[in-house]
Amino acid sequence: MIGLISATAAGAAARDRLAAAWPDRTRVYEGPAGEAVRAAFAECDRLVCFLATGATVRLLAPLLGDKATDPGVVCVDEGGRFAVSLVGGHGGGANELAYEVAALLGAEPVVTTATDAVGLAGLDTLGLPAEGAVAAVSRALLDGEPVALEAESAWPLPPVPFAEQGAYTVRLTDQAVQPGPREVLLRPPSLVVGVGASRGAPVEEVLGLIEEALREAGLSVRSVAELATVDAKSEEPGIVAAAERLGVPLVTYPADELAAVSVPNPSDAPLAAVGTPSVAEAAALRTGGELLVPKRKSAASPAMATCAVVRRPGRGRLAVVGLGPGARDLLTPRAAAELRRASVLVGLDQYVDQIRDLIRPGTRVLESGLGAEEERARTAVAEARKGHAVALIGSGDAGVYAMASPALAEASDDIDVVGVPGVTAALAAGAVLGAPLGHDHVSISLSDLHTPWEVIERRVRAAAEADIVVTFYNPRSRGRDWQLPKALAVLSDHREPGTPVGVVRNASRPDESARLTTLAGLDPATVDMMTVVTVGNTATRNIAGRMVTPRGYRWQHAPEGAR
Ligand code: SAH
């Protein structure tokens, strides 16, 4: 719950916007600010104070205890210009809240916590439970002291600048070990606990069995990702309550799916009761992994619960990210977030240069020169299969004449794939030219390196006959100079010489240039590989210097040739 406190009319107005946007997450504290802050501090996880930072600091000072337990506090100024993360930046969630509040109110987030300020991910914000010397190890990272990662299994972590060896360590482990004095333990959600229970099995018995199994196997309860059982037990109160108390989801499978899983300890009792010879082991093993604790029964007599524990491997993550046509503000926030999320970045060197400032310290950058597309795709997939978080980047949209298809042609279903769309060249150029894509349009690459020219020409002819607006990608290079004139000649068989043609070079980049000409007037020598060429349909017009294709054309207005 987020407590909202304000003292002035302007503050109250901003407060009400927040309350309206997040009705279930917020509670408004009325009355004098001092009392309101005290009450909210006691009752809420986080506070947003529409007060001066000075006033807020004075009110909070006597209330502050421990940063692990205190609520995070964000201040918003009277003008609504800044959302300041004041205390509890990481643990209290104030940094994140400052970003959220700023986005909602159109304010600027102000975050001063050191790890965020220099682009390092805080160890407590890696998305995994962290135990031990979080502050000391974070400080060591910030000060550039060597911190080593000891990962017992691969996990797709965000980037952290780990060293080979160091006096400080971050240990990724699901084992029930204690952190050393200069050590942080990260708990990956790697354990799946399969459970079975007779009707009416008490939660104490189910939970007790799970905790005992973990303890005896030396495993940390904080690494339990989920409980798994058979569909028929999806509402068994003891199992449901055990999942709730552990704070993990309960996943259930049909009996016939579980029956198909081969297990070391099948038995007749569950076969008769629910239709599978194994519930606990089969449910735990269902998504693959290593059986760490074979089926065991609770100690009660008669035993009403069974459990088994499996360690599942981390799944690598491949983000295929379009960077847009060039301008930074045409790179989407989602693309920027994925660039920060990845610990391995794969791309063409000139695209890496474009976003180098967005990459966090600790990111491994695998850049290569022109060509070598297949190899880049293979590298990205191979890194993801090792369990890393990988971003494969491309200009414009990464799926348009770019890396997404060779990469996904390589990828198997043992990795997660996330696609981030980007503004492709045709759209960037369209916005520069006016509204050339207002009706049906197609993109055609004139590169015959991978496609026979006959195929390309057939597609150009089809577009010409169908009167579709055409954008040519890869239109002309030093070694490929006859294709564009040939394609324009094919279009000229079906369109007037005066048909508008837009030529945009380096759309949205500092040296952007654009020309609006005609089919007859286009000089191919002005076109190169940094260019797209958009040819209008028979209804496209040059209106006040802008290329406009009508939304729909009324037949009687179409020119002679199109009737
Ligand atoms: N994935 C990219 C296209 C890669 S093919 C995208 O979605 O935009 C490369 C071709 O795209 C270039 O030869 C050029 O024709 C075109 N192109 C890419 N960026 C461009 C830009 N900023 N301005 C003009 N054309 C561009």
Automatic annotation (TrEMBL):
Alphabetized InterPro entries for the sequence: 4pyrrol_Mease, 4pyrrol_Methylase_sf, 4pyrrole_Mease_sub1, 4pyrrole_Mease_sub2, CbiG_N, Cbl_synth_CobJ/CibH_dom, CobE/GbiG_C, CobE/GbiG_C_sf
Under which EC number(s) is this enzyme classified? Answer: 2.1.1.131
Q: Which UniProt keywords apply?
A: Cobalamin biosynthesis, Methyltransferase, S-adenosyl-L-methionine, Transferase
Which enzyme class, named as a word? transferase
Looking at the record, the residues that make up the CobE/GbiG C-terminal domain are 191-309
Residue stretches making up the Cobalamin synthesis G N-terminal domain = 36-116
User: Annotated Gene Ontology MF terms?
Assistant: precorrin-3B C17-methyltransferase activity
Enumerate the spans annotated as Tetrapyrrole methylase domain.
317-522
Pathway of this protein? Answer: Cofactor biosynthesis; adenosylcobalamin biosynthesis
Entry's Gene Ontology BP terms: cobalamin biosynthetic process; methylation
The protein's name: Precorrin-3B C(17)-methyltransferase
Q: Which gene encodes it?
A: cobJ
